[in-house]
Design goal:
Radius of gyration: 16 Å
Bound molecules: adenosine monophosphate
Helix content: 55-70%
Oligomer: single chain
Mean pLDDT: 94
Structural class: alpha/beta
Shape: globular
Distance between the termini: 10 Å
Amino acid sequence: MRIVLLGPPGAGKGTQAGRLVDKRGIVQLSTGEMLRAAAAAGTPVGLKAKAVMDGGSLVSDEIVIGIVSERIDHKDCANGFILDGFPRTVAQAEALDALLAEKAMDLDCVVEIVVDESALLARIEHRARETEAAGGEVRKDDNPEAFKQRLVAYRKQTAPLSAYYADSGRLRTVDGMQSIEEVARQIDDALDKA
Ligand code: AMP
């Protein structure tokens, strides 16, 4: 299956994507993870993206589309993939459609995790505390200032994707304010009907 997961920062996309990987035998393609890995490795693309990411704004469509296009050609994507954090603009969604058409592939389902924005900052702070307690490195953009900017970017650039996918009949929504298990159940339901 080829799936897109939509939702604002802190909606639980990463958690749910990880579960789908185990359950459906597909790979998780998180553009945020790929960009953080590129930044940590000090590649030219990573270095270019790092300052933008740390401030909570979006990296250019060109960079991200290039990364995804290259990644989905890898063998491990043959059985399907779940895109987490991509597309994030209508231009990226159009590029994804074009890219998949070129490769004779289709998107099976777009799932939006709908959440109450007022709960998001608390979730991000919780994630940062948990990471710290586990001895991990807290993301540079998991702080109130960068988070505010990420939310602005989401509202302005990513929220219009719901209409983009709804117009083509591909959008399913789930209630992201429920427990992780219940959200997972709703996602499974949406995918089974796709
Ligand atoms: P995420 O891990 O999905 O929260 O992404 C972290 C950061 O990586 C974002 O705030 C952006 O700066 C950058 N990023 C990740 N995915 C994209 C994308 N599809 N388009 C543009 N920037 C992205």
